[in-house]
Amino acid sequence: QNINEYVAALIALKQKMIDGDRLLTEYQQKCTDILSEISALRYQVEKMLQKILPLEKCQEELGSLKAELEEKKVC
Question: CA-CA distance, 58 to 48, in Å (whole number)?
């Protein structure tokens, strides 16, 4: 009977190892997917920043022109 209990315990342990390996593989895949998404989002943010910087310069120039026009208007 001790041998049967030992074999049952080994089988249960083996199953837990298999389940653990499966969960670890799933976790690693999810991490890989998340890292890929993060990379794509970073790329999108960089592209948006490249578009925003010229717009900020234009906004500054418009502010200067507006101030100039207001000054001329007063005169």
Answer: 16
**Residue 41, token pair as written in the block:** 């989002």
Q: Tell me the torsion sign for CA atoms 15, 18, 23, 24.
A: positive
What pLDDT digit, counting tens, does each position of 20-49 carry?
999 999 999 999 999 999 999 999 999 999
Give Dmax (Cα) for the chain: 107
Cα dist from 73 to 60, 62, 63, 65, 69, whole Å: 20, 16, 15, 12, 6
Count of H helices and E strands in the chain?
A: 1, 0
Structure tokens of 2?
């001790």
* C-alpha distances out from residue 72 to 15, 38, 57, 62, Å: 84, 50, 23, 15
